[in-house]
């Protein structure tokens, strides 16, 4: 008889994020996720009090990994222009390199959900504020930096949607490098 691996809360949140990516918030359901993990609902209740607690943990993990950890990675570079270019390189990459984008797009469909709405608002605000800081540190006045951060973020959202729905249209290789250069040049042009 095979020994079953003891699941952690992180295993459950990873599976919840996978389910969310594939089927939206409604797909974050205990029984199907338990089946996917090859376990019972009892394992779930060891870590979470209910489905909403799992969804909340998954959302918080997505926020941490796909916003705060990326910002921390970028902040290791002292040059704001270099950070902006690195950010755009990450943001305009292939969707398979950024599973968090799939989660974000799935969350957009449930933007009014009481657990999703505050997380999406917080993530969007944090990202826009960070990009604004990059433009301001690069020498732009705050109002102009804010407008450009909005342009950069909406370009990212559009790119993420295109990369998910029509990945064959997303520039790759040298074309991707040139595309990122073009986007950064457009965003930083005086």
From TrEMBL:
This is TetR/AcrR family transcriptional regulator. PROSITE patterns: HTH_TETR_2. It comes from the Bacteria. InterPro entries: Homeodomain-like_sf, HTH-type_TetR-like_transc_reg, HTH_TetR. SUPFAM superfamilies: Homeodomain-like. It comes from Pseudonocardia yunnanensis. Residues 6-66 form the HTH tetR-type domain. Residues 29-48 bind DNA. Keywords: DNA-binding. The keyword Kinase does not apply. PANTHER family: HTH-TYPE TRANSCRIPTIONAL REGULATOR RUTR, TRANSCRIPTIONAL REGULATORY PROTEIN. The keyword Plastid does not apply.
